Structures are given as structure tokens and as C-alpha cells.
Amino acid sequence: MWAGEARVRNMFKWATGSIDSKVEARKGAVAPGFMYEFPWECIGNYKYALYAPFVYVVATGQDDADMWCYHMCGIISLRYMQAILWNFLSRNHSISGRTRIQEKGVDFVQVDREDNWDDYIILQAYVATAVHALPYIYCYDGQCHAYANFPLFDGKGLVKMLLLHMGPTEFTYYWLHRALHLHTLYANYHSHHHASFVPEAITGSVHPFMEHLMYTINFAIPLIGTWMAGGASVAMFYIYMLGFDLLNILGHCNFELFPIWPFKYIPGLKYLIYTPTFHSLHHSKVHTNFCLFMPLYDWMYGTLDPNSWTLFEKASAGVAVPHKAPNTVFLAHGTELLSVFHLPFMSRTFAAHPFKTHWLMYCVWPLTLPMLLVLRLVGRVFIADKHRLGHLNIQTWVTPAFAIEFFFKSQWARINSYIEGAILDADKAGVEVFGLGALNKNEALNGGGALFVKSHPNLRMRVVHGNTLTAAAVLQKIPMSTKSVFILGATSKLGRAISLYLAKRGVNVTMVTMSRERYEAVVNDCAEPYRKHLIHSTDISDGKHCDCWVVGRFLSVKEQAMPPPGTTFHQFVVPPLDELRKDCRYTSLPAFTVPKAAQGFKSCEMTMGRRNVHACHAGALVHSLEGWKHHEVGAIDAERIDLTWEAAMKHGFALVADSI
What we know:
single chain, alpha/beta, six-stranded mixed sheet, six-stranded parallel sheet, 17 strands, 10% strand, elongated
């Protein structure tokens, strides 16, 4: 195959609508048709290089008298900024949760399908530029007219633009949209858009290439028509393109932001502008509410859903979906400063993949300090995401603190006040199980959650650190044939439980700790017949002949060099070890894939893969599913390790396999 043959084949497949089965699997259309994909889809994220000519022209001073490329760069940038802003608003439950329209969540399938939501921005920038670059569009009375020489502003022209949109564009779109719901066109194209039953802010721009071509021609009517009527201006392009995007976003944002009173007291307003609720009915019922932005056309042609205004009033009043307390809450926290951008409402694409600091992220690093200040000023735990697991409503909350803050004793009182406040709020709301994640249950900070249970003995809710299942996950990775292990962090909550369990199994456990007192405390918790298997060590070199290390603390380069080749490092240390030894094996942090019944997972839990959660999170969910009535705080009950593991397996959790 010659070098360019693959590209030629891709272009042929694009033009004919022939799509590989792997590609088709992630498309939304029932039967993708002719020119379904955008021409640049085969080059992935290299498509952003298509903006380079605009930047180059501006940077080299080769722009024309209209400063066309400069304004195109400005409009493109503002379109992205507006989309990011509304993604933040629509996904932030603290802002938009009260007036939510659809309760069902979004999943990774939808996120992936909508990942190319911005293709229309590239398309429209090039189409507009191509029209602008033509020597002339028409000639009349011996004079040719080019799409150029725009003044900055023309107020009368903006009125003409609005009228052209309300008339020809809205009318054309209505009937085009209805045509797209005919069987063949729907199967070939428009079903891609309707695969998103629950729309998000950017869903309105997710369409196949052919469909976007038709829309672009229609949406050009106000821009070309205003120019022909003698009213075009630079402001026209900004106002129409950004205004269009705004209204499109509003129709798909899945929360109602319009108050009821304007529609009650301004006659006819409900026919001139749609609401998020109005268009959400089109996504849920499909064959109603076809208009672009003006319900007038649905009313005129008999397709206006009779429940439109009733649902709008309910959503605006905050009663369209039930607002009940979740069954289970899992409390996470920030890790490094850049992890704030991994929140689902900060970046939908970044959050949909395991957290990994990319060099591009350092471009926004200066924004982390203002974010830190905002979090400090807000001073409250907030909701990051919502899911469902069978009959359970589950939520992930976040402590407004980064990992480094947990290591400063001066911050402990503040952090504990956040956690305690969240626990009391959750208990008051009727939450059944409250899970503590990562450093939120640090032993030195609050005794693994015991501090809160002791301070509030009348809690109806169960507080759970989930580490019983974490211990079970670590133990499952240690082969039954193992005769001896070397444990660092042996007197920690997890290290203690693992040591006691292995000793009972007849495994010789070398416990590395500088404190004889802490070692003896663990020995005293061990049944008499098994105490002989617990061996005290104060020197890491004692593990140089052991090929099974269980690690609960950071290891230096020198310390990792200590064990023999072929050693397995079983980890429960956060963050995980740097894999420095190529002749050794490193297990991943204990994690579980959630059961198939789990719904609404659209973001990754930090470094975990999709639909994977940390073992302590899974532990809280199992606690809730089993209906256990005890708190799981403080020391781990080693006698419950097998019981907890069996419960997790019963409910369909699967231990995440280690990467090879």
C-alpha cells in the first residue's frame, strides 16, 4: 500500500457513506448515509490545525480591509468559551440541579458520540470565508458586489437580520426538520442527534456533516439577506453566530432557566421564543415541537405538544423531577491542583477519561490559584456527579481541599469542619450511607471517620470508610500459595487488617514499623494460635529475600531496589508507586468495575478507567446494597473481609485486573 492510499480510501468511504463497523458502532444514526462524516473526521484532533490559516493571516499582518480573519478568530474563540460556560452551568448540580428537566443521566456512549460537537464551527468558518473571498456574488446594473466592505455596526441592519431569521430561516428550518424525521432521512442522519435522549448544552450542534451543510445554508439567509438589503456589519456576524449558539444551547441544556412570569404577562411571548423545557419534549417524544427557536411554527402547523407549558411551569418551579436525598453519598477530594479541571462540569472530554496531566493542561495552570481561592471562599462540600445503581440513587460529593492540604496539621480543623458539615447535612436529608474517600478518612485527621461517629452518636446514617473491601481487594491479588509477605505501612488501618488476615491464613508476615508499641497492638488483636506468624522489623533490608511486598507508603528509588527480581509490589499507597523496576510486577490500586445495572456514569473517578471506582467507593455502595446497619469507621474488622468480598461479588462488582 502506497503512503497515501489509506487516506484516499478514507475519503472514498466518507463520500459514499461507507463506514467501518468499529466506527459505525460509535455513531448514533440507525443507518449512516451519504456524506455522514465530516471530511476531517479521519484525522482526529489534528482537525484543529484547520484553524491555523486564520491565525497565520492575522499574525503575519496579511488580513484584508475587513479584518476578516481577525474577526473569525474572535468569533471562533467566543463560540468555544460560550460552550464551555454553559457546560459548566448545565452540569453543575449546585447551579442547575433545582430546575432539572430530565432526571436520567448521561453515559460515556453519549459523551463519545458528542465529542466532535465543534465540527460545525470549523465548517461555518470556512464556508463564510469562502463566500467572503469570492470576487463578487452578483452583478447588477453594470456593478458587481462582493461580500465585503462591512462597517462595524448597523442598527437597522440588525433589525433586518432578525426579521429574516424569524421569517425565512425559521420557516425553512421547521419544514426541513420535519423532513428529517421521515423514515429514510431520520435513519440516515437525524437519528444521530436523537440518540441523545437527555440533551446536554452542546448536544444541539451534534449532527452529521450532510445535515450541518443543510443547516449552514439555511442559517446563512439572514447574513446574506441582510447584506443584500444593505445592512450588513461586523457586529451582525458576532451577534447572529453567538446569539444562535446561545439559543441552541438553551434548548438542550436540560435545566429550565426562564421564569414563569414573562410568559404569563407578555402576550404571545411563548410563541416567539422557546424554552429548554419546550425543546426537551422534542427529544423525549420525537414527533412534537419541531421549531428552531419559535414555537409559533409548531402552533401554526399543529405539532405543538399540549404539555409544553405545563411541563415548563413545573420545571421553572423546580418540580419537574423529584428532589429526594440520595441513598448513598461518596465524599472525594481534589488531588493535585489541575485535578479541578477533571470535574464533570469543568471539562466534559477531560473528565470522560482517566486523569492524567497533559502538557496542554499546564496552559490553564494559572487558573488553579483563583479556583483555590473560590473553593476556600465557598467553603462547602459540593456535588460533583449523580448516578444510579439498581434502586439506589448515588452521588459523589467533593471536599473543597486538595491532597497537599491534608498533610498540614494547621488545615485539619478546617477540613474536618467541611466533612462534618457534609455528614450532618446528609443525615438531615435522609441519606442512608455516607462513604469517605481517600484522605477524607485519614487516620490522623479523624480516625478513619470515628471522630464524627463519636461526636454525633445519634446519626441515623451509616458512615463508611469502605476499607474492608479495599483490604479484601488487596488480599485477592496475593496468591494462595504465598508463604511470606513483607508489609510496609503495616500498622496502618489497611496494613493491620491485611497482616491479621494473612497471619490467620498461615502466612509469615514481616511488619515493618519503627514502633514496637504499634506492632504489639496488632499482635494483641491477633488470635493466639496465629501470633507466631507476625514478625517485627525496623529495617527495610529485611525484605531483600522476599518476593511479595505489600506497600502502604511511598518507596524511594533505593528502597524499590531492595527486593529480588520477580517481586510483586501489592499496593494500597496513594498515589501509586512509580514503576521503576522492569524486572518486578506492580499491581494497580484496588478498584472495582461497577455492575452493569449502574447508570449515568459519564466521568472517570480520577485515575480510574471508565465505570471503575476505587475500592472504598465500591465498599460504601456494597454497604448500602446490603442494608448493613453498622458504621464502618476506625479499625477494619478483619473477620468481615470475606463477608464483604462475597457481598461485592453477589451484587455484580468485578475487581479491576492489573495491567500487564
